[in-house]
Amino acid sequence: MVDAVEVAYKRTKKCLFEPFDFWKWVKLAIILMFIGGGGSSYGGNSFNSASNSYMDSNHGIGYDSGYNSDYNPLDSISNAIDSVFSLAVMALIALVLILIIFFMYVSSVMEFVLVESLVSNSVKFWEYSRRFLGKGLQLFIIKLAALFLSLLVLALLVLPFVVIFGMPSGDFFWLSIIGGMLLVMLLVIIFAIIASILGSFISMSIPVSLYLNVGVLSAIMEVLRKFKLDWQQIIVYWVGRAVLGIIVGIAGFVIIMLALLVTLLPLLIVDGILYLLLSLVMPGSEWIVLAPVALVELILFIIAMALASMPFKAFLKYHMLSFVEKWYPEAGIPFAKGIDFKAEAATGSLI
Fold first, then answer.
1. CB atoms within 10 A of CB 204
2. Contact call for residues 264 and 301 (beta carbons, < 8 A)
3. Distance from CA of residue 66 to its chain's centroid?
4. Per-residue pLDDT reduced to its tens digit, 254-299
5. Any idea what DSSP says for residue 230?
6. How far apart are alpha carbons 224 and 345 in whole angstroms?
7. Distance between CA 153 and CA 155 in Å, rounded?
8. Which residues contact 332 (CB under 8 A, 6 or more apart)?
C-alpha cells in the first residue's frame, strides 16, 4: 500500500533533487514567501475664533477688529505642522492598507502558480503568474470575505471581556473574569479549528479549479459536494494531516536551526573582524560601512531560511495534491511524467 505520504515524498524528491536545480529552489522559495503568510486640528481653531469674536464685541467704536493683540505666528506654524503630520499619518496608513491588499492578491495568484509548478514539475514564474491573474482575483475576493467574517468573529470574542470589565467589582468579580477568559479561549480554539477546515477546503479547491477549468467558488462547492458523499476519508485526512504537520514542523525547525547556525555564525565572525578593522581605520564611523553590510546579510539570511524551509512546504503541498488526486479523481490532476505515481497508488488508501 502506497499512501499519500509516500507518494508526496517521492514527488518532492523527484521535483527538488532529481536533478538538483538551484534556481528552481530559489523560484519555489520566492513563491512560498509570497504565499506565507483623517486630518484634524483638535478643535483648536474653532475655540480661537469664538474667543476673538467675543473680544471684538466688547471693544469700543475705534477698535480695529483686524488687529489681534494676542496673535502669535508660532501658533499658525504649529497648527500647520500638526496638519501636515496628520496628513502624513493618514497617507502612511493608507499606504500600509494598499500594500496589505496588494500582497493578499499576489499571495492568491501565487497559490495557483505553486500548484501548477509542482504538478508540471516546471517553475515558470512569470508565465504562470500572468495566466492565473483572473483565478487569483477570485481567490482574493474569497479571502477578503473570509477576513471580514474573521473580524466579525473576533469582535464577538472580545465582547465578553467588554461585558466583564464593565461589571461592578464584587465577590464574584474574579470568578467572572476567569470564566470569561476560559470562554474566550474555548471560542478561539473552536474558531481556529473552523478556520483550518475552511482553509483546507479552499486549498483543495485550487487544483479542482485549475484542472476542471471552473471558478474558485464553483470549485469550493464541488469539494463540499464531494465531502458530503465521502466525508470519512476527509476526517482521516485531517487527523493524519495534523500529525504530519507536527512531524514536518519539528523536522523543519531542526533543519532551519542548522541553517541558521551555518549562515549566521560565519556572518557574525566576518562582522566582528570587519568591525575591528574599521575601528582602526575610521574610528567612530564604523557603522557607515557596517549598516549596508548588515542589510545585505539580512537579505541573504532571509533567502537562506526560505531555501531551507521550502522542501518541507513543498512536501506538504504535494501531500494535499496526492490526496485530492485519489479522493477526487474527476479533477484529473495532470502530474508530469516522472512524478506521476498514480498507477502505484491506485490500490492504496490515500490518507
1. 26
2. yes
3. 58
4. 888 887 788 778 878 887 888 788 777 777 776 777 778 788 878 8
5. S
6. 24
7. 5
8. 211, 212
